[in-house]
Specification:
Number of strands: 0
Number of helices: 4
Shape: elongated
Radius of gyration: 23 Å
Keywords: Membrane, Transmembrane, Transmembrane helix
């Protein structure tokens, strides 16, 4: 639930920032994003790729009860289809 709340707050702050910048400077922030992506695309792609590679290194922690349940379900599936 906290991830959903965090995502909603993040999107809300982005929309609010967009409105403030548009009213104060009469310049759409999307033009700024487009300019940065046109001029710095190699840097953006490199940072995005490195971030994804680092995040993929973190494993999923499965506690013992969950692992036991997954093993039990897998065993039931194997027994259902008579696979040994």
């Amino acid at each position: 639930m906290s991830v959903l709340v965090s995502a909603v707050l993040e999107i809300g702050s982005l929309i609010l920032l967009n409105l403030v910048l548009q009213r104060k400077f009469s310049f759409p922030p999307l033009f700024q994003i487009a300019f940065v992506l046109e001029t710095q695309i190699i840097t953006v792609q490199t940072k995005l790729l490195l971030t994804i590679l680092v995040l993929l290194q973190y494993g999923l922690h499965v506690s013992f009860p969950m692992a036991a349940r997954l093993a039990s379900v897998a065993l039931q599936q194997l027994q259902r289809y008579h696979i040994r």
